[in-house]
Amino acid sequence: MPRRYGQHFLRDEAILRRIVDASGVGPEDFVLEIGPGEGLLTRILAEKAKKVLAVEIDRHLFENLQKADLPANVEVRQGNALEISIEEPFKIVSNLPYEITTATLQKFLLSSHKPATITLLIQKEVAERIVGKNGASRLTLFCGYHALPKLLFTVPRGAFSPPPKVESAVIHLEVRQNSLLDPVSEEQFFRLTNAAFAEKRKTLANSLKSILGVDVAEKLKKANLDPKSRPEEISLEQWIFLAQSV
After folding, report:
1. In the CATH scheme, what is the code of domain 183-245?
2. 9-175 domain in CATH 3.40.50.150?
3. In this structure, how many other beta carbons lie within 10 angstroms of the beta carbon of residue 183?
4. pLDDT level of residue 6 (50, 70, 90 thresholds)
5. Which of 17, 119, 188, 199 is the most buried (most CB within 10 A)?
6. pTM for the whole structure
């Protein structure tokens, strides 16, 4: 079976059901599944959801799914899920090809019509970065600004076929439907965080001088931030306050 798109198929039914339960999908929900692969997660989602749209980019897998006698409330579509647009309320549940994790989050968290929730089985290291387990990162702040992420549980390598080389984890994001900041402050928030993490080994005073000017240290202190701090030490709430105060 071709694996051009990096699929690692999860075949442990107990874990699949745990993922669906954690997603909160119910009988009124429309679900987008990205990369259904063999359709095992698809079938369990179909038991809970009103409708499942399973988008598979791999033509061989898509053709197999068409022959798989899936439940009537499942639509299988061949194509790139990152290029589709959904206008009705929806949730995302997926055992995601790990290399498209960031692209998937960017696509749907920045969409004009956002999903209500996103539940993903992804690389454990990336899941930990999203929730800021070892300090903030650009991805931590991006996801935290647009959603409320929680790392739910890890999944052993042996549950997959073939087993991935990395550890895996399930993450759930409750997507914010309204922005935390007004458009001007939001733009400033991302200017500041992008500048800081572009040179994350530098102190805030050094990395933000180009934006905040020569009195950068004074402005940081007024926002209750230590100019000698590193960007990974600053919380989402502190970045928001800084964006609003400058």
Report:
1. 1.10.8.100
2. yes
3. 8
4. low
5. 119
6. 0.93
